Amino acid sequence: MEQLLRNFFLYMGRNGLFNRLAKKYGLRFGAGKFVAGESLESALQTIKDLNAQGMKVTIDHLGEFVHNEQEAFMMAEHCMDALEGMAREKVDSNLSLKLTSMGLDISKDLCLSNMEKILSVAQKHRNFVRIDMEDYAHLEMTFDIYEALREKYDNVGLVIQSYLYRSEEDVQRLAEWRTNLRLVKGAYKESPKVAYPDKKDVDDNFKKIVERQLSQGLYAAVATHDEAMIAHTKSYVKEKHIPLDQFEFQMLYGIRTELQKQLVKEGYRVRVYVPYGNDWYGYFMRRLAERPANVGFVIKGMLKK
Ligand code: FDA
Predict the structure, then answer these.
(1) Average pLDDT for residues 3-32, to the nearest whole number?
(2) Cβ atoms 82, 40 nearer than 8 A
């Protein structure tokens, strides 16, 4: 049943019509639990609130289905506005983005030029930009863009998904660039040809890639809500005497907030991923797919409207 619901939400998340309707009618169905409003101002306020609780932030201006050069350009503008806004408000937050929203499906050159503009603004403010990892079809292109950017910029990082068989090799490959990596399990529906179908294998591999990144002396953002993965990371860093400033835990806005606070209390770096913007629908569906139990929020949200 759970798998069925998962597939249903992933399928719904790719539906263009629902996506357009969601943009038109605004944040609803309880999506406000996971999305920090539709404007940059609301996201900045959320960052301030989280910073006041001792948490760092990465913000993501949500955007799916970018069809033309103009839309990609607008998405890049939003990212630059966000970097300027964060610098102006002096908040502790970096930026996360997806290359498809920078025009990757339209042309690599367009995507690269948007990214260079964004990284230049980030560099001016000594800030950092993380490229989220999307589905497997975009993986090689994402690496190509990352490597081209690294020729000129060092304020950019990537994400590696432990559900992919190749992820350990990729961590190794990216060590050449001393890449700041976010390590995740992976959020897309992938074929067993490329990804472990069993959760246990995904979890085992997650631990392996965290260890590999840290043992190479490289920065790791351990992004999970899974207490077993967090406990494993804690005991590994303790055993290997890895300094507390060589890694951080990352969690999504609105998920396991008590655990986020607890980790801060224990002295760990915690960064919350804060999405905002009117294109919230696909993101919201992926969160429901991860944990269909959260569908309770949707029902409550519908009853409120
Ligand atoms: P998993 O789903 O295995 O669940 C383990 C346990 O965690 C559950 O039993 C439950 O206790 C708890 N839990 C998990 N989800 C919960 C929820 N929604 N509500 C309450 N409890 C929950 N993916 C990707 O493909 N590319 C990317 O760039 C990113 N980026 C990213 C950034 C950050 C900061 C995070 C935290 C995650 C991502 N992801 C991602 C998503 C990631 O790949 C993965 O889908 C989710 O984090 C869910 O996996 P977990 O490791 O959290 O645990």
Answers:
(1) 68
(2) yes
